[in-house]
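Hello K.,

You asked for the raw outputs rather than the summary table, so here they are, unedited. I folded two proteins back to back in the same session to keep the settings identical. This is the first:
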Amino acid sequence: MLDQVSGTATEKDESFIEEALSLAARALFVSNPNPRVGCVLVSAAGTILGTGSTQRAGGPHAEVMALREAQQAGHYVHGATAYVTLEPCSHQGRTGPCCEALIRAGIRRVVASLADPNPLVAGQGFERLAAAGVEVLVGPGSAASRDLNIGFFSRMIRGTPWVRMKAAVSLDGATALANGASQWITSAAARADGQAWRARACGVLTGIGTLLEDDPLLNVREVATPRQPHLVIVDSRLQTPLHAKLWQASDRSVLIYSAHAEPERSNALQALGAEVIDLPNAAGKVDLSAMLRDLGARGINELHVEAGHKLNGSLVREGLVDELLLYVAPKLLGAGAQGLAEWGPLQELGHALSLEFETVEPVGSDLRIVARVAGRAAFG
């Protein structure tokens, strides 16, 4: 098997994998909890015969979509190469095994970016392709495919979502004035960009403090999306208001994690459509680590955190944050302003949370910084 998945990618291979990656990006708001995958079918002469990307959960995967497009166009795919950004699945779920569909179609060669971390696949797709005489090359586009599916890899390998903490901050690191005023630190362009990051997530996490202070809706707006992420609330004492704005968004599920059993209050919230999960820790707060494990079991790949400095601080202090998404405004908010996260104080610089910049880009009049906790993304 190792000999059949080794080799060197050509410039043509790299080019068609780039095309497949652009198709995978089309599934960004669509495929959760499944991975975002793209596929390009190419003839021996170098002609594109069919393309596809993963559809909504339960719908066709990228390989099947590409085969269908080729068939509808009247193209003969026998002997073609399939460029795919993740290993073709080998198990029967809500859809059939993609590796078998490629084999039946007579695909001669498969170039894939990565092995699928799902234990139900994990190399078995490659093995079945190789056993059927299909040449397999793995590796081109691996870093881009992994980044596109960082939440899926996190859930498959760690059993927990990829936790991305979003905040709008001033140049001096403040998220609000001392009196709590925070609207709006950043520009309209930055706020619209933040909506796209919400849309790609499986769940949006906030705390009871933010609900009580801001009464936010916390759904995806300004971005076309076929699905709304789950709303996840950390609410130890079940103080979520029964008339909050959040209930206006009826096209999503609401998960409320509590630490104190309050049957009457719980019943009232569940009557509004929420699911209440009691997960107390020894201190009488919500067990955040257990919450992430529970969210992983529910198929949450990326968890987008939009919370206040207290919940942010708890997540940082417990080592549960993987990535920061910061919109930095060219403003100074001065003494007494609230910081991003309430944790510390640290006694040594060596105890600081080390981050690695992924991207720094202008968005409107602001900067968007994506920074990962050092060493946290070594999946696959």
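The second followed immediately with the same parameters:
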Amino acid sequence: MEAETQLDVSMSLSIFFLKNVGVWISNDPAEKRRMKILVLITLWNTMLGAVVIFRDIYFTFMYNGDILYVITNFLTVMISFVKIIIIMIYKKEFIDMILYMEKNFWNVKYDFQEEEILNNCRKTCIFFVTSVSTIGICAMISYAITPIIEYYTENLSERILPFHVWLNLPIISVTPYYEILFAAEVLSIYCVALCYFCFDNVFCILAVHLAGQFNILKHKFAKLCDTDSKISKKDEESRLAIEHVQVLYERFKEYVRRHQSLINYCERLENVYTVIILGQVVISSVLICLFGYQILVNDVSIGRRSIFVFLLLGSMCLLFMFTYSCNSVIVHSENIATGAYSALWTTMPMNKFGRMLRNDLILVIERSRRVCCLTANGFFPVSLETYTTILSTAVSYFTLLRNNLEE
């Protein structure tokens, strides 16, 4: 990426995480080989985590262990695994969207008001990306250090691993086998954690800047006919008046083409992320319920409780980031109609191009009423209302779960 030095904190951080999981491009052959190795390591460690969790579910169920704790870990790992698989399937289109955003959203000249809109988008992305990334890293660290804390604070006879491997071998807790297994599980946690939030960070950046471009286009439509020169009725058929309206009409056609390109970009974003959105929205209510329950369980250590505090905060923040980004696209794509109507079309003469401009503005308004939205695999559009619905569902699940377990 040539203009990488011009990127803001949110995109630089997201690209750093993408490079760590190997989902990036480069013109350097050595860098390409490194990316291929990293993506293989990520896939291997994510699958390794899934296998360990599958075994943990089986043996925990057989020996009546803490099945809710294991199911919570299983859902978290599986979401990460599904995300990396889908992104690898759409890798080319995923990277193309990022490069398109850099070229057509950022490296463009804007006026003062439009630059303010773009800066607000950047501030929003920085807030979400840094918050979600920080909470995700804290949860990852908590998973890694909890076995160490429990070993020293609870005076355990044997050292334990972050996840139970269910191997009846005495050498597991013996050096160096313990250290090797511990490092393998920590590396698996690292890959799963990055896959859990790094692709969602990129989605937030793409969606928020897409909404910002709709807002900028609304501003352009609103000032389309804003001109210092007033055209009187007696001059409306003059050569200067005709040329003036013709220039405005050509500018209007540029804005329409821009509107169409943003709609196409939204469809591309929907195509890549729609299954991820569905999985995140459907599973989030269950995860929030389970995270909250694990925090309130009485017989867990402080280390394990800290894990689920960070997971609960991260899940709620991540879900809010998803729904806020999708809601922004809906709101600002619909506001194009307001911008088109706000154009000073009443000052235009009723000549050929003046009438064409009025008629085409009506078409823009009608098209904008069909809002652009990002859906959960086509089942329903995602908005801030989805966020409140999921939280309400999670609270209902939590209440039902506590009542059943107390009985």
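The CA atoms of residues 160 and 293 lie 23 Å apart.

Happy to rerun anything if the numbers look odd on your end.

Regards,
P.
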